[in-house]
Amino acid sequence: MSRRTKIVATLGPATDHPAALAGVITAGLDVARINFSHGSEAEHLGRIARLRETADRLGRAVAILADLPGPKLRVKIPVARTLTAGETILFPLLGCPVGEADIAITEPEVLSDLRPGDRMLLDDGRLRLKALGTSGGKLKAEVVIGGELLPNKGLNLPDSPLSIPAVTDRDRAALAVAAKAGVDWLALSFVRGPAAADFLRDAAAAVGMPKVPVIAKLERPEAVRLAAGIIGAFDAIMVARGDLGVEMPLEQVPTVQKQLIAEARAAGKPVITATEMLDSMQKNPRPTRAEVSDVANAICDGTDAVMLSGETAVGQYPVEAVACMARIAEEAEKRLEKVGNGFLTTTALQPRETIEDSMALAACHMAQEVGATAIVTPTISGRTPLLLARYRPAALIVAPAPNPGVMRKMSVMWGIQPVRMAPLEPGDRRMVTAVRDAFIAGAVKAGDRVVVLAGHPIEGEPRLPTVRVVRVGEDGASLEP
Ligand SMILES: Nc1ncnc2c1ncn2[C@@H]1O[C@H](COP(=O)(O)OP(=O)(O)OP(=O)(O)O)[C@@H](O)[C@H]1O
Ligand SMILES: CC(=O)C(=O)O
Ligand SMILES: [K+]
Ligand SMILES: [Mg+2]
């Protein structure tokens, strides 16, 4: 693999055909997103099982990301319908019976919070209504901008405070399914503050899910304001531009994206940039110039991963979309390499917090100085590779890990190629076997010069972080540099 940027793609009906699923994996899928806001339990379980099976067959480590609804409101209408400007629509409040022409929503308790004049935006802002007031157990609203409304589309209330818990009953139900399937990452929609991280971890533990890393989806203005705390509390973030562009002025989204990516990177947490990246590819085999530029620019901003949603979930060209994204990423990275991968600007972030962090920086410098093709770093938890990735070295970060769960967790992180760590035989040294692990996986080849970094205690090694330079031998041996 030469591509450093990771690709997240949403599975859906469009990837249900075995050829399409194998196609997106082969085209470069690193993380498969299951959007628990759409589809049934059986669909999710089936998709996850087929993904695992196909990835294994193709010999690729693909992580599974369960995207939970969070307090994101959605309409509950049985079939598509058209809303016309000027028309009045009734939204039943909590406990009120739903009339045939009414629009019910997932959390009707929020409707009581709406004040006359508040905006109600449907389908990522495509349709707009204005709240008029409540009477007879229903909220009355006037359609300002009409259009076709499909079942299960989102409802945003950017002018109103949201008094729903961070983790809802819908999330608990989704977590139970995710626990049954076993997933590698959890993402929570509509995070409003750092406390949501522990609510989510507790809810996951309550359904018997072992420790799974958690992603905060930033899609509300208060989350952007509290970004530093949220980044600290979660294991990664997603710039969820779909809802973000509805909840705040759309023209602010590009600068918010840059700010969030910079903050996440400074904190050493992975960041995913999401939504509409290649949107026109839902219907066309080729993207627009603007879309190609958008993906490339997110990579230049320093995103770890780029994400596809409708393009792969329901679009006509899911395989082409992933392949296209991979090509754009590879091209954008050539420029990053020329300008030093932003490495020097990041090193201006002083001081280093831990010895491991200083060692990681030293290893990146060393790799550059000696012309290493890779930095090999055996890892138990995935932490040292992440410290390296933070500096965006030109060398590939090859991370032998002892279990598939840790390998898959690293699939979302920029520049890291997870490989299988062989068990240690008596007399073996991990810094030597790690190079062989990388060689066997094809991540380094004979004659390559590599930097080896053990950032934390590893069996068979001194307890101090250690960095070495070696040359790879014919059989993956570690030779004098
Ligand atoms: N599993 C699925 N089954 C059917 N339709 C889907 C599925 N996943 C996505 N879609 C369709 O693709 C669109 C875009 O996908 P996306 O995952 O961005 O969802 P979304 O509804 O915009 O919500 P979110 O804010 O959670 O991303 C959805 O609105 C929906 O119409
Ligand atoms: C991905 C997502 O939830 C959004 O962009 O709103
Ligand atoms: K979701
Ligand atoms: Mg969203």
UniProtKB/TrEMBL annotation:
Residues 3-322 form the Pyruvate kinase barrel domain. Keywords: ATP-binding, Glycolysis, Kinase, Magnesium, Metal-binding, Nucleotide-binding, Pyruvate, Transferase. Pathway: Carbohydrate degradation; glycolysis; pyruvate from D-glyceraldehyde 3-phosphate: step 5/5. PROSITE patterns: PYRUVATE_KINASE. Its EC number is 2.7.1.40. It catalyses: pyruvate + ATP = phosphoenolpyruvate + ADP + H(+). Pfam families: PK, PK_C. Its cofactor is K(+). It is an enzyme of class 2 (transferase). Residues 357-469 form the Pyruvate kinase C-terminal domain. It comes from the Bacteria. SUPFAM superfamilies: Phosphoenolpyruvate/pyruvate domain, PK beta-barrel domain-like, PK C-terminal domain-like. GO terms for molecular function: ATP binding; kinase activity; magnesium ion binding; potassium ion binding; pyruvate kinase activity. Coiled coil: none annotated. InterPro entries: Pyr_Knase, Pyrv/PenolPyrv_kinase-like_dom, Pyrv_kinase-like_dom_sf, Pyrv_Knase-like_insert_dom_sf, Pyrv_Knase_AS, Pyrv_Knase_brl, Pyrv_Knase_C, Pyrv_Knase_C_sf. Belongs to the pyruvate kinase family. This is Pyruvate kinase.
